[in-house]
């Protein structure tokens, strides 16, 4: 820590004319940040609080340590729970240590560093603001200083506060600690305030920063989460994804059993999002995300030698690791490219510090796996997954084995809708991965999905700095959701495109508040949802087009002549059967028993022709005409007719 003489010199320099422009800019910025945070937090102090997602986003955007993770923080927490938790944390009379202990486990993505800085901004009249500059000052010269312990930070800042107060204030309209935060920020840029570097013994390799210690431990199997931990993780995942029942439990069981995992499903079902959340939220591993392409080869997966030049222009070669090699290597304690062993000869693992959080290690998440020619790209990996060691090249033109950690997993996603241009998976890969299908939310999950959509749409709009009107989002969802439910009866459709449509409506309405929400919903459907349906069966697109062009009766009129090619189309009748089940549920919600009976009759007819497609006889045609008239009378009114595609 700087001496008293150093501090006196720093304070004098801070006040000198040589740094006047810098000083004034910093002070103005800190004063503005303080005023905005206080204005937003005032809404949190109210009872009941009027603090919403827009306020939360504005506050987090001003809290230095929360800027990069504010989207995750907003989306991963239920706003009602978060507001209540923050009120207790910021304004209760409980001891500070107790408040931190209760709050940290309840707020996802906001650890002690974020919470302590937020507390400082809110209570700047009493407590220092532990921004980056403050933490660097506290830890400079003393690696044991806990920069996230607010009480300890306050104790170490106290001499600076006293010295600064004696020389007089520069900002009279904000608390002293706001001015001190600006001073520490400048001090960190002007003086070499860095955490003490400690030189380890030779056997442990080069120097390391004690301020961010790496925890090492022997290689071990994947740890099983407790029942309470699994429940908490699943609840957090369900805050952002509407998943089929037991999806998280089944995925966790596969991973604990030592399997790598492939999540399959239609676009927008949350495969990529779930893959990262399984790694991060359930098991605590950093998800390293890559996207497969048709050009992938073993070089992209394992790595290889690449030519490069040094500063003098001389040609040399270096090993460039592929995505699997890179992910695996980040889990080990390395020396000279080789895995270090402990005193008992066991490979040494390490934790990973990134994005303001300490992780148990790194997992690899491969998005759109089946876009790659898997046999060509993953050939060397097949053996590695069996033997537990990956063979990688070295600079001598040979190769060496890098062990695969026992708790390392690969989670990949597989888009089942784009089969017409995607490579198929080989049996060799299928033997090494477990498969788990994600389906669009069912009718039993409609309320859960709609609540998730509203919450995430509001958070996404707030992140973009747009006025997030819940009334507008709910009105748009009311217009879109019946159509989405109908489309799902014919074509698999996930939650993501619906979220994109709601975000468009919110942004468009913020731009032009006079616009009709129903008109904007139609624009959103054409832009964000309709393109995903282009690979559907032609008859399904025809049905959707009829309904969304305001002519729902044509859905059944097109089936009037089942002898003209339709009768033997198994796919068509399978779709009609699904549509009939959807219509039955719609009739049940409206309490229309006549329509329910008609829907059941249509389902029976469709299942009959799906099971045994043959040319109809005269009796079949008479029965069909009777069903058609009943459908026009009872079922057409249940279809969500719109004029969005005219």
Question: Any descriptors?
Answer:
17 strands, two-stranded antiparallel sheet, 646 residues, 27 helices, 11% strand, 52% helix, Rossmann fold, globular, alpha/beta
Can you give a write-up of this model?
This protein has 646 residues and is an alpha/beta fold. It has 4 domains: 4-190, no CATH class; 298-438, Rossmann fold; 443-533, no CATH class; 538-638, no CATH class. It is built from 27 helices and 17 strands. It has a 5-stranded parallel sheet with strand order 5-13-16-4-17, sandwiched between helices. It has a two-stranded antiparallel ribbon with strand order 1-2. The termini are far apart.
Mean pLDDT metric: 82
Strand content: 5-15%
Strand arrangement in the largest pleated sheet: 5-13-16-4-17
Rg estimate, integer Å = 30 Å
Distance from first to last alpha carbon: 72 Å
Q: Please report the total strand number as a whole number.
A: 17
Structural class: alpha/beta
Shape designation: globular
Q: What's the helical proportion of residues? A: 40-55%
Kindly give the count of domains: 4
What's the layout of helices and strands?
Blueprint: H1 4-15, H2 20-45, H3 53-62, H4 70-76, H5 79-91, H6 96-103, H7 112-122, H8 132-139, H9 150-166, H10 176-190, E1 197-198, E2 208-209, E3 216-218, H11 227-238, H12 247-256, E4 260-265, H13 271-283, E5 286-291, H14 298-301, E6 303-309, E7 315-321, H15 323-329, E8 334-335, E9 338-339, E10 348-350, E11 352-354, E12 357-359, E13 362-367, H16 374-387, E14 389-393, E15 399-403, E16 410-415, H17 427-432, E17 433-438, H18 446-463, H19 470-488, H20 496-511, H21 517-529, H22 538-548, H23 554-557, H24 562-566, H25 570-590, H26 593-611, H27 618-634
């Amino acid at each position: 820590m700087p001496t008293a003489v150093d501090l006196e010199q720093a304070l004098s320099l801070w006040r000198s004319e040589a740094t006047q422009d810098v000083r004034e800019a910093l002070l103005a910025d800190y004063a503005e940040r303080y005023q905005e945070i206080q204005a937003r937090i005032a809404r949190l102090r109210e009872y009941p609080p009027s603090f919403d997602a827009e306020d939360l986003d504005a506050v987090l955007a001003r809290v230095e340590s929360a800027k990069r993770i504010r989207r995750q923080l907003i989306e991963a927490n239920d706003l009602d729970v978060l507001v209540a938790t923050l009120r207790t944390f910021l304004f209760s009379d409980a001891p500070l240590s107790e408040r931190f202990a209760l709050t940290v486990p309840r707020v996802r993505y906001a650890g002690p560093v974020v919470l302590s800085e937020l507390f400082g901004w809110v209570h700047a009249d009493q407590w220092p603001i532990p921004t980056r500059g403050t933490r660097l000052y506290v830890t400079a010269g003393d690696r044991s200083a806990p920069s996230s312990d607010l009480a300890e930070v306050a104790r170490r800042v106290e001499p600076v506060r006293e010295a600064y107060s004696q020389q007089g204030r520069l900002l009279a309209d904000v608390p002293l600690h706001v001015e001190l935060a600006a001073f520490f920020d400048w001090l960190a840029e002007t003086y070499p305030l860095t955490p003490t570097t400690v030189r380890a013994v030779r056997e442990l390799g080069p120097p390391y920063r004690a301020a961010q210690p790496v925890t090492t431990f022997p290689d071990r199997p994947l740890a099983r989460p407790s029942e309470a931990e699994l429940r908490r993780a699943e609840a957090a995942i369900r805050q952002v994804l509407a998943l089929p029942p037991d999806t998280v439990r089944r995925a966790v069981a596969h991973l604990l059993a030592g399997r790598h995992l492939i999540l399959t499903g239609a676009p927008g079902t949350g495969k990529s999002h779930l893959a990262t959340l399984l790694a991060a939220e359930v098991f605590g591993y950093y998800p390293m995300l890559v996207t497969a392409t048709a050009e992938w080869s073993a070089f992209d997966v394992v790595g290889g030698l690449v030519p490069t030049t040094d500063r003098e222009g001389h040609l040399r070669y270096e090993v460039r690791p592929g995505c699997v090699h890179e992910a695996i290597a980040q889990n080990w304690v390395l020396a000279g490219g080789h895995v270090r062993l402990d005193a008992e000869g066991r490979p040494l693992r390490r934790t990973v510090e990134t994005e303001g959080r300490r992780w148990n290690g790194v997992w690899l998440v491969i998005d759109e796996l089946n876009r790659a020619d898997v046999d060509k790209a993953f050939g060397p990996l097949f053996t590695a997954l069996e033997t537990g060691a990956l063979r990688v090249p070295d600079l001598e033109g040979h190769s060496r084995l890098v062990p695969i950690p026992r708790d390392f997993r690969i989670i990949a996603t597989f888009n089942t809708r784009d089969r017409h241009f995607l490579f198929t998976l080989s049996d060799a890969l299928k033997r090494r991965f477990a498969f788990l299908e994600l389906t669009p939310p069912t009718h039993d999950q409609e309320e859960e999905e709609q609540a998730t959509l509203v919450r995430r749409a509001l958070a996404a709009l707030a992140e973009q700095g747009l006025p997030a009107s819940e009334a507008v989002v709910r009105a748009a969802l009311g217009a879109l959701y019946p159509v989405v439910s109908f489309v799902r009866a014919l074509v698999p459709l996930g939650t993501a495109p619906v979220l994109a449509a709601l975000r468009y409506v919110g942004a468009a309405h913020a731009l032009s508040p006079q616009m009709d929400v129903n008109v904007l919903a139609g624009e959103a459907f054409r832009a964000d949802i309709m393109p995903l349906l282009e690979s559907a069966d032609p008859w399904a697109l025809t049905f959707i087009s009829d309904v969304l062009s305001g002519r729902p009766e044509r859905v059944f009129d097109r089936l009037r002549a089942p002898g003209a090619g339709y009768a033997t189309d198994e796919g068509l009748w399978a779709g009609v059967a699904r549509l009939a089940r959807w219509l039955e549920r719609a009739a049940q919600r409206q309490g229309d028993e006549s329509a329910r009976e008609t829907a059941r009759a249509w389902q029976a007819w469709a299942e009959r022709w799906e099971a045994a497609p043959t040319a109809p006889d005269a009796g079949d045609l008479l029965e069909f005409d009777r069903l058609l008239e009943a459908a026009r009378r009872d079922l057409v009114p249940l279809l969500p007719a719109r004029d969005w595609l005219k």
